[in-house]
Amino acid sequence: MNCIAVAEERSGEIRKSSLETVRAARRTADALGGTCTALVAGHGVAKAAAVLGRYGASRVLVVDDSRLERRPNIALAKIIAEVVRREGGELVFMAASQAGKDIAPRVAVALEAGLAADCVALRTEGGDIIATRPVFAGKALLDVRVTTPVKVFTLRPNVFEATAEEAAAGMETVAVTLADEDLVTTVEETKVASGRPDVTEADIIVSGGRGMKGPEHFALIEALADALGAGVGASRAVVDAGWRPHDEQVGQTGKTVSPTLYIACGISGAVQHLAGMSSSRYIVAINKDKDAPIFQVADYGIAGDVFEVLPALTAALGKRGK
Amino acid sequence: MNIAVCVNHVPDTETKIRVATDGLTIDRTGVNFMMSPYDEIAVEEALRIRDKFTGSVTVISLGSDAHRETLRKAMAMGADRAVLLRDDAPRDSFAVAAGLAAELRALAPEVILFGKQSIDYDDAQVGTLVAAILGLPSVAVVVKLTIADGRAVCEREIEGGHETVHTKLPAVFLAQKGLNDPRYPSLKGIMAAKSKPIEEKPAALAAPRVAAVALRKPPAKNPGRLLGTDASAVPELVRLLHEEAKVI
To answer: Which residues from chain A sit within 8 angstroms of residue B161, using beta carbons?
Structure first.
């Protein structure tokens, strides 16, 4: 089974979710008997691509083209599909990052392949792959099989482990043909919101709800987040009230997150919020109301006042020296 | 300007999910259905574009007769035309996309809008699959959309920030929360929608490419521990996070 793992480069580095994807592809190739090849396409990506061998790729293919500077999604999909065809790729893996989710369906159509999107688990069964994806906002899990000869999978970030085990692999440059119409959609500008990790990729998230009683009190959330190097999340109520930006919203109409630790402060735990964070590895809840539904999913809870508990927690963590 | 929006009819966000006896789908007994929330945002955007440029909004849904309710809601919001592509059988994102693409190819709108994902299966594929099938550009997770002179300038959400993306029409856009606040249908709109016709045709599906093997509930979590009722519980919390959970 030839496995191709597509990696993304940003700011001179391969993204963590891509490293996770390469390792998952390698594990799959080992389980089914096959090869694992990584592919990076972009402009000025060759140097960053060198790391991919350590994460399980036995070959690293690099497409480096100035026309890819503005990350045209049609061109990127076309390149990926062409390389997969040339390599005789059968299983294609990408991270279910924003870019991956955008490009993977195009790759799938080009390869006449089915796409299992946002997978949280992969297992092999009698030479076949069964992928598990959360559905209904994570209230259920759906095991699926891709029925086409070529199969595409996008993997949810922060779920699969990225382990650097091997030495570097050989790098090969690949040339591709692009037409003008492949370049019609371009990224003209990128704005970074804050220095903190995005909630979809953060290992730790500190999240606030209406119990914070006002936008100014989110300084307590931010202080704890910074003490932990965490991302900041928010419930729908505080986003709708304009206290926090939408990209922090966790929940059914916000982001679905899978951090190792989720600290919910002043959040009651509405069904729609739980849908976004219940697959967190560990959940801590701080809420004055001991009957709040959030305590039913929390591993550890403090039924106390956030204005007392948060500063104490931040101070205690500061003392530990994270 | 010819604008199309594709909408899905899905279990509402309060639904407690139970697995049906077939082990592959949900038990629909007592489940309330609604227009998928991101699709509402897409419908609203379509209406705003129409009102800015003059034109027509066609709303399309692929599914069973029950989808008429969601089409009526879109018409009550102000959509001009509604099409139900009828199919009652299980299907995957690709099959649905193929059916929608067939209808959209004939309609040839300048702007096609979808919600970024349907909140039942959370695949986030159909809009982009349709664009790929039709050979059109697409921009996903759009929080701002400005159309002028046959081109679109979009703002889309990415990890930790936003991208400004340019493309040309005709194109497909997948709406994200924040793009707009969908209007509530007016009473007048609701009454008018009751008498607007919904065109029904059989869906021209393609063969699905992803098959369900099993639908199951996530493993139950062990009950958690309430450590205290004030800041005096903090040292214990820190200890547990370090020693037991090993996350700090």
So the answer is: 190-193, 247
